[in-house]
User: Which sequence fits this backbone?
C-alpha cells in the first residue's frame, strides 16, 4: 500500500487580504456603510467523556457552539448607526411600553412568517483580486450588546469614534463564490 503524495505547493498561493469585505445588514443600513471590522465566528463542539479505569477518553458531543458575530463601526455625526441598533435593542425588550416592539420593521422568514425581531446579515469576503470569494450568511440575527460611545476633550480632531455591536444568530452558511 502506497502513501498518496501531498503537493508541496497549494493550488492558490495567494493569502486572503484582511481588509477586503462588504457587509449587508438589512435592518442597519448606516452600520453597514460605516463598518470597519467584522469577525467570522469560530465554532466549537462539546465532548462526551468515556470513562475507563485508566484515563478518560472523549468522543464528539452532539451540539455545536457558535461564537457571537461582532461588528465595529464608525459613529457618524448624526449617530444614525448607533441609534438604529439602540432602538432595535430597546424594541426587543420594550423598556417603556409594548408599542416599542410594534415599531420594529416587519421582516419575514422563508415561510412568510413575520419575524420582526430578527434580521439576516450577509458578509462578502473579497479575494486578492477584489473578486467575491466567500459569502457568509448569518441567519436570524439580533443584537445582544452595543458598546459605549466615549466622548473626551483629550481626543484630537483627527480621532474617530467607533462602537461595537455583538449579534447572536441561529447559524451561518458559507458559500464559495
Assistant:
Amino acid at each position: 500500500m502506497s502513501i498518496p503524495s501531498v503537493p508541496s505547493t497549494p493550488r492558490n498561493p495567494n493569502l486572503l487580504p484582511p481588509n477586503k469585505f462588504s457587509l449587508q445588514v438589512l435592518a442597519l443600513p448606516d452600520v453597514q456603510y460605516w463598518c470597519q471590522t467584522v469577525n467570522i465566528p469560530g465554532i466549537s463542539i462539546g465532548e462526551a467523556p468515556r470513562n475507563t479505569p485508566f484515563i478518560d477518553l472523549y468522543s464528539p458531543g452532539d451540539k455545536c457552539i457558535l461564537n457571537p458575530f461582532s461588528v465595529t463601526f464608525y459613529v457618524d455625526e448624526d449617530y444614525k448607526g448607533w441609534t438604529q441598533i439602540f432602538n432595535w435593542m430597546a424594541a426587543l425588550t420594550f423598556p417603556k411600553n409594548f408599542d416599542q416592539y410594534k415599531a420594529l420593521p416587519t421582516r419575514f422568514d422563508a415561510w412568510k412568517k413575520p419575524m420582526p425581531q430578527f434580521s439576516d446579515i450577509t458578509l462578502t469576503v473579497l479575494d486578492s483580486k477584489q473578486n467575491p470569494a466567500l459569502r457568509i450568511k448569518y441567519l436570524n440575527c439580533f443584537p445582544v450588546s452595543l458598546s459605549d460611545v466615549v466622548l473626551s476633550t483629550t481626543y484630537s480632531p483627527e480621532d474617530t469614534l467607533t462602537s461595537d455591536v455583538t449579534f447572536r444568530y441561529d447559524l451561518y452558511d458559507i458559500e464559495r463564490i
The first helix runs from residue 29 to 34. The chain has three helices and nine strands. The mean pLDDT is 87. The CA atoms of residues 18 and 43 lie 20 Å apart.
